Amino acid sequence: MDTNARPARYDVLFEPVRIGPKLAKNRFYQVPHCNGGGYRDPSAVAEMRRTKAEGGWGVIFTEQTEIHQTSEITPFIEQRLWDDREIPALARMAEAMKSHGALAGIQLAYSGINGPNLYSREVPLAVTGGPILTFTADPVQARTIDREDIRNIRRWFRNAVRRARTAGFDLVCLYGAHGFGIFQHFLSRATNQRGDEYGGSLDNRSRFVREVIAELREEMRDEMAVTLRLSLHEEGTLGLSNAELREFIALNAELPDLWDLAHGTWENCSGTSRFVGEGAQEDLVAGIKALTPKPVVGVGRFTSADAMVRQVRQGILDFIGAARPSIADPFLPRKIEEGRFDDIRECIGCNICVSGDMTGAISRCTQNTAFMEEWRKGWHPERARPKGASESVLIVGAGPTGLEAALQLGKRGYRVAIAEATTTLGGRVARERQLPGLSAWGRVADYRTGQIAPMANVETYLDSRLTADDVLEMDFEHVAIATGATWRRDVVARLHLAPIPTDPAMPLFTPDDVMVGGGPTGGRVLLYDDDHFYMGSVIAEVLAARGCSVDFVTPATKVAEWTQNTLEQGVIMRRLLSLGVNVLPSKAPEAIGDGEVTLGCTWTGARTATPADAVVLVTSRTPNDELYLELRARDWGGAGVQSLKVIGDAAAPGPIAWATYAGRRYAEELDAPDIGDALPFRRELAELAP
Question: What global pTM score does this model have?
């Protein structure tokens, strides 16, 4: 490692910092984050954390770890520490975290009013009883805890710390942030309306956390450190405000060994880059370090090393906390340490990683295609497999799929040619990055083109639209068709499975038209969204900015309904309303006429006519697979082509993360043996109980 390549101003990031009895080797602190694996996929989660340890993080934490069956958050799959049988899997996790000198931390959670107990079927327990407040809004209520319950919960935390110590963890994080932890529930008047010694004044509301930490220190035996994760600010008149949080910290300055601070709800803390910039929580955390002698960690989707240095040098933070940036590039600390700034794979803030947790699936990352595949498939974010027996690959299309495939194949050692029909690399990303709030998404193309540029074995050809004859005459052993997809110019998607009556006099447009500057420039526009992700609302913003009067029609009950999984549905709704967009949920076009659209209620079928000067359809996409189909119909084997595949959106349109994954998978599986009907990934199965 040539540390001389790193400018001296970054040295502050690599200073060791003490956390209680433990010493972190640097200031890079991977805060707890979900991953969709949890208790279901312990080996996958452990290997993912091991990769971060290799990447140089000084502190690495688990995700939320439930300490007791009376507070669990099914359907979300997190870690569990309900009894001693969970210790071996977590011990493997701790060992992986510490494999390269990082401190291993475990986040302990008792979710209280946010724990519906849908799996355990235990009665939920809360500081003050009431309906469960979690994302799923389950029709369940929690019971108000009494003094005996409080003693029990304190004991359960002691049991969890004992198990964590046995498993080999260095740090324990008591989870109170994002509305998901009982510690915040006690502190906040919104969730603590008690009239006993645990309610009322801030001193009373602080009693529980003081009692728990005092008891845990006895259990830790000076072998572990305790950190406290709290929300920087809760909305509403009863929530724990930033001012009251500062008062609490000043009164309890030395209570934990470290203060871990994150903004409000998870939606506020982990906003997408479309709405929240880097370091957006600075105003809320600035000045808190002056209230306590203990170190402070904060988050802000930090991707810039200069921003990190400023946070430390200006005394805002002691540790640079990161969840999503550590997912996008597990080697972020090492790359900064070695001065390899151009190699950093920056987080784009799309929150596809969050969607894995929200849907009970395995998480994925648009930028880091190896995320959560380190154990399942043996993929590594930095190291490539050796090249197979073949030599050459032609990739048609330089969108996110083609660029990722070319990058990984180039790293493996193949001779690669990328033929792009347009004059710009990036495909859909090159167009979508021009839309409001999506400029950070351009990093998908920028990173890959930057990495490919110095590769002597990868050649890029722009303005090169190939025919089937061209492909068969180019003498490549393998051909991958990554030609993307086109938005449909009709209503066919989830609701309508066939086109509806449409008068050709009505101007019809799609996102493809709008993204290149076409589409309506005024008048009354009906936008129909049956895609339910980000595109419909972004196009509505563009139209509103052009001066159009926009009617946003969707068969769903909410605009951009799927973005609940990326934590932005609420802010999208507020944005559209602030722009004057007229939202018409639970409706869909039944006929498109000249000057009007007939809308049908998706519940009753009742029809109404809505005037419109133009219609923009955000429905589904059609794969651009014509070249692939023509090649498949030809004797490509006779032309010396050993394999022909269609990949990415050209095979099946999906989010950008699906596209980059498809490129990685193609590159990884080239020249691999045929596995027949075997699974293409490893998984863990539960053993039958005796």
Answer: 0.96
